[in-house]
Amino acid sequence: MFNHNTNEPKYRIIKSYIKNLIKEKKVEDGQMLPSEYELMEKFGVSRHTVRQAFGELEKEGWVYKKQGKGTFARNVSTGTKKGMIGLITTYISDYIFPHIISGIESVMTEEGYSVIIANTNNNKEKEAYQIKSLMEQNIKGLILEPTKSAEDNINLNLLEEVLARDIKIVFINATYKELEDKSPNVGYILMDDVKGGFIATRYLLETGHRKIAGIFKRDDIQGVRREEGYRKALESFGVVPEENMIARFTTEDKIIIPKKFVHNLLSNKKNANKIINKKEDINNDKSIKDSLKSVKNENNELIPDAIVCYNDEIAVKVIQAIKECGLSVPQDISVVGYDDSSLATVLDVGLTTVKHPKKQMGELAAHHLIEMLENNCGNHKIICEPELVIRSSCRIIK
Amino acid sequence: MFNHNTNEPKYRIIKSYIKNLIKEKKVEDGQMLPSEYELMEKFGVSRHTVRQAFGELEKEGWVYKKQGKGTFARNVSTGTKKGMIGLITTYISDYIFPHIISGIESVMTEEGYSVIIANTNNNKEKEAYQIKSLMEQNIKGLILEPTKSAEDNINLNLLEEVLARDIKIVFINATYKELEDKSPNVGYILMDDVKGGFIATRYLLETGHRKIAGIFKRDDIQGVRREEGYRKALESFGVVPEENMIARFTTEDKIIIPKKFVHNLLSNKKNANKIINKKEDINNDKSIKDSLKSVKNENNELIPDAIVCYNDEIAVKVIQAIKECGLSVPQDISVVGYDDSSLATVLDVGLTTVKHPKKQMGELAAHHLIEMLENNCGNHKIICEPELVIRSSCRIIK
DNA sequence: ATAAATTTGTGCGTATGTATC
DNA sequence: GGATACATACGCACAAATTTA
Predict the structure, then answer these.
(1) What is the pLDDT of residues A1-55, one digit of tens each?
(2) Per-residue pLDDT reduced to its tens digit, A319-329
(3) B83 vs A102: CB contact, 8 Å cut-off?
């Protein structure tokens, strides 16, 4: 109480005096504190010194001032709030992320937590910055959707520091094995993307497609896994994957690559047009159908009868590119997407796609984290099973 | 540059001078800034004034000081957090909110603030809860998209308490006049939705449409305002709005109503098919074109030649429903949307739509709030002008 | 309705202490 | 030690906002 240390500056003594008034509820939240003049007299200091104390307290959030009225206590933690949760995703406004965020927010609010959001724009450095920022905000838990999860994780040390501060982590969409093994305070919720890629491709194989191209994202682990599933499915049907029919892209070139890839695959426009002219006969004439299978592009390669896409966003671009080449979906080429996003039902051809839990995934992640915080039980590891949503973007060949 | 406003305090002039040095990289991260004595002479002020400027900059994270060495620039991106900002919107994952949220988050992160998000699900009680929650979190500012802003504002007292705690407020999409008048710490940024609805409808009228249906959202003020603009445009062309050609929906029935509405409007399928069969002749034969105008549905009403939609999401559903009825856009019916969302370019027919600032609106709101916080200047009131983006979903009749 | 008192905001001048080079 | 730069501290004056008499 009276630690009038000879070395301690006067303004600091006043600072802690005021802080104690607030902490010990001698001055309640919103009530007025002693005026500057009162404190001047009480401590026998100049007004400047009192102001310095109050000034710092204001910046630190302990008090707020009103000219002509006074200085008032702001009790930070009176509330019913249980605390704050950090949420870092690659994007906020794009694609399925709003649904994931919304799911997390609704559960956290329901349970009395606040959610601080931050995004990384798929940039590892920004991810580091956001993790550091959130650490300064006294968060109790962190929900993290890793950025560029297929690449080296340069932020591993940072995440270890997070755990060292007793902040629990739940990963979504991708996980870091290294951390899981080290700490029990790590959970995750992901999709079985290998299986997702597998069932999408298997469906095409089962419906008679054999020449199946694929386009995948290579800088996040979901893309790598979906490609893995795609290859497994092909192999399980004894089809050898053709590397020139598989494209990979990153965040940076996701606009260009899909279009270029499709145009390349279908670059023989002359033959492509031939297909169109014979479209009506296809269903009736098996010989023509077979002949179509040997239509080749400029590079003397067979054009594919289906394309497996990393997600719906890419699938839409692929379908647009196919149309630009004068071909139709699914009559000439079948297309499958991934995520069952709102885009899947926007086109005139309904997109066959793999269901992503989206909002439910957010809700699950939030419940996970809360359980880890309140019941302190580990092993919160959930893998969602993918499910195929069949619409009309794939034809049935056999 | 030299906005030495007579009313602006000297220390704040020095503050922004220093901030600019850092922002414009005239003093790099870690480099020493002019000493207190230098600035005293440069600005002709006392040392105390310079210290006040530096003191605040230090608390805000712009500089750090070393006794005996000097004051040094701190690159904001490595600095400590300036504080937290609350963000309350009606929805998180729907409509344009993801983009608004994203805009706010990006600017706030850039400037060193954290953003706490919360949503109200268009529920006034939940809004009250969220405002109370955020007050407990020591936020410096609040960005609020009012819930049910057309109705009585039961949370007015709560917002006054927010202001009393020296938390600045920026409204988006709607504002509360009562608060604006009472406090200088309130800003807003809105869109002129009446004008938006007006220019969309006026465009249809100018291109010869007369029988213009409309479908609007009724549970948020934007929907009400857009409908108002729609009616104004019709009236300005001497067209009497037909109530049975105007539909209203809420969040809950936005899936069903648009489809039902269109099917109802076009319920005479037989006549609809007649239109299709004669499509090729339309452009050449005026008499047929005129006869089409008298095509009636089952209820013996003329079918519309255009539909104004609340937003792009609805427009897409409307277009799908029109196709289901065997009609085409824009050949048989023109459609305009609102927001210029990503949906506008996904369909094979590009959607003519009204541009919404979306992300920029969020960015502006964030900049607003930061200026209010750091430079303490009021009068941050912006109304965005809408703009029509013309694509191919409307035909030109006359 | 006005004036006075109270309280914070801005600003000047001065002095001394402490850390760095 | 001396020069420089920030840290602490006192005293004074007037402005602006608010409350009270």
Answers:
(1) 333 344 678 888 888 888 888 888 888 888 888 888 888 888 888 888 888 888 8
(2) 999 998 989 99
(3) no
- Smallest CA-to-CA distance from A309 within A342, A334, A328 is with A334
Global pTM?
0.78
Is A67 near strand D, with its CB below 7 A from some atom of it? yes
Task: Provide CB contacts within 8 A for A346, sequence distance 6+.
Answer: A316, B316, B343, B346, B347
Chain A residue nearest residue B48, CA to CA: A48
Q: Identify the residue among B157, B163, B319, B346 best suited for mutation to test binding to A, counting A beta carbons within 10 A and taking the highest.
A: B346
Residue A6, Cβ density class (10 Å: 0-12 exposed, 13-18 middle, ≥19 buried): exposed
Contact assignment for A348 to B133 by CB distance below 8 Å: no
CA-CA-CA-CA dihedral for B149, B155, B160, B162, to nearest 10? -100
Find the residue in A nearest to B138 (Cα). A76
- What DSSP assignment string belongs to B120-176? -TT-HHHHHHHHHHHHTTTEEEEEE--SSTTS--TTHHHHHHHHHTT-EEEEES---
Q: Measuring CA to CA, how many Å separate A222 from each of A146, A152, A339? A: 11, 15, 11
Mean pLDDT of chain B: 83
Residues in chain B predicted with pLDDT less than 50, given as ranges, are 1-6, 78-79, 269-294
Give me the residues of chain A with pLDDT under 70, please: 1-7, 76-81, 268-301, 378-379
